[in-house]
Amino acid sequence: MNKRNEAQRNKDLWDRILSGDDEAFATLYSLYADKLYSYGLRFTFNQELVKDCVQEIFIKLYTGRKRLNQVENVKTYLMSSMKNILFNYFKKENSHYQIDSIEPIFYTEFTGESRLIESEQLYAQKKKIAQMLKHLTPRQREALYYRFEEDLSYEEICQLMQMNYQSVRNLIYRTLLKIRTTVEEVNHEIEKTPVSQNEPLHLRIKL
Amino acid sequence: MAENNIQYTLVDLLEDEDFIALAKHPDPANKARWNTRLEAGELTEQDFELATYCINSLYSPERHLSRKELADVWTNVQTGIAQKKRRTGKRSLIWKLTTAACLLLFAGSYTYISLMQSESLSGHYPDIEKVQYPTTMNDRIQIVLSNDNSIFLKETTAHIQYNDKGEAEVNAMQMISPLPGEGQAPSYNQVIVPKGKHTSIVFSDGSKIWLNVSSRVVYPLVFGPGKREIYLEGEAFIEVSQDPSRPFIVKTKQMNVKALGTSFNVTAYNEEPLQTVVLVTGKVAVQTKGAMPAETELLPNQQFSLNGSETSVQEVKVEDHITWKDGLYIYKEEKLSYILSRLEHYYGISIRYSSEIGDMKFSGKLDLKNDPERVLNGLSNTAPLHCREEENDTYHLYINQ
Q1: CA of A26: how far to CAs of A82, B96, B115, B190, in Å?
Q2: Closest chain A residue to B22 measured between Cα atoms?
Q3: Is the ipTM beyond the 0.85 threshold?
Q4: A34, A78, A120: which to substitute to probe chain B, counting the most B Cβ within 10 Å?
Q5: In whole angstroms, what is the distance from residue B265 CA to residue A102 CA?
Q6: Pick the CATH number of B225-315 from 2.40.50.100, 3.30.70.660, 2.40.37.10, 2.60.120.1440
Q7: Cα distance from B84 to chain A (closest Cα, Å)?
Q8: In contact, B306 and B255? CB cutoff 8 Å
Q9: Residues of chain A predicted below pLDDT 70
Q10: Could you say which residues of chain B have pLDDT below 50?
Q11: How far is the alpha carbon of B37 from chain A, nearest alpha carbon, in Å?
């Protein structure tokens, strides 16, 4: 399902929920409960907590639906509900320990498997990129996750990260520049090594 | 390759929504678009490969809810909604909303549901003995609904009451309504009572069952015409409400107890060789299963015992056998090993003792409202025994020289 169809389907579901259609509510649950769970677990390892959050989101949605207005984007609405509930919980927990600011870890893992028989150079570059990605800050990781994993637009990322458009763009752009620098470093290193080891690129990309 | 043709650098590719879409979900249209650009030299193959790698290498360690968890959270959502409604004074039950949509969600993922559906077409109940244990069990009392959703109770005792529509009330609070089609099509619930816990259930026909510790009962939401059938593992005292047209049958692994309107006690723990039925009032017929099936009718104050394949009937004082439901165990000339294993179940403890002690016989009354140490030391009134708590929930019973 492409993004536009998904948005349209969600909007229809939402309208039906607001008009009291319980079947639509159950459908929304079946579509998003697991996704929200999986998303919530990027901020914490506490599975029970995240399950409780999923529960709370849907209970609040149902009992408060009469007061809910039209929501522009159901997916990001649900995701930001998850994030808000979790962060409120973290803040409450942290108040016991008197920590002023928190930045929960955003868990992702980077692996890469090539579909091609690749050159030494490409292999080295990928390896370096994978290493570099591991050292991103939580916010960089979170932004890249939205962009590459969830296919979200910059506007949607703004909403979830509560940052303005330019800041999100800068955040992502700086991360991408880091990737480029990594690639260039590898190229530079390889240029310095003897020619015999520097295999030509054997790449055939077929789409 | 015409380097000066380059229009997409690595960073450009990573920023391009169309390229991200290609890397994640290639389709003929975006493939054609980017192939053309590749051939025109607007991007290098290396950048193409690296960009694709970056986008797809953001491998996410996805953790998913199991179907069971998904169904459990859904049940909790409904409970939560129902409770909120109740608080705001609205009494309408949310459970209606589980309806078709819910069945749609979870049906098919449960072979059990589909089994029941096919059975219901032929108009027969599926075999009650074949109802599976739930996948998750813990130290809480658990009610398994017919869609395999589970409700776990925090309390050590639970009282569950069904009305004739198959709606249930748990501890006079929580309402559970049947799913649509339940009640018409035969569907079973089950209750699992762990060590140290007790539960009583009033069935849809008004019959009542007291479940002792470590027991499990499977029953239909609403009894069908012709017979009332439940399946039991463990110990239960049952008061059957009068209905001559529908005999009440308690099935266990090794026997069936058939009653009309009566009260009786059944002990049928899977791991214990001795299985008994004690009749308090009315009349029951006990059928044993196995190679030599036999039927025995009991009169009040009689106990039927099945030990391996040997059966016997003897007169007993019924109070001794049913007082457990009021927290009292009464024994007469009973082997201590049997009594101690009952106590282990009741309190959820383990007791260490020699075979010499296990073979002792004991008569007397144990008040289970006391803590285990006191009950065990109470044995020393009739025998030279002493008890010491070794560590948490482990007791050592030894002969006092």
Answers
A1: 18, 12, 24, 25
A2: A207
A3: no
A4: A34
A5: 60
A6: 2.60.120.1440
A7: 8
A8: yes
A9: 1, 93-119, 193-207
A10: 1-2, 89-124, 180-183
A11: 12
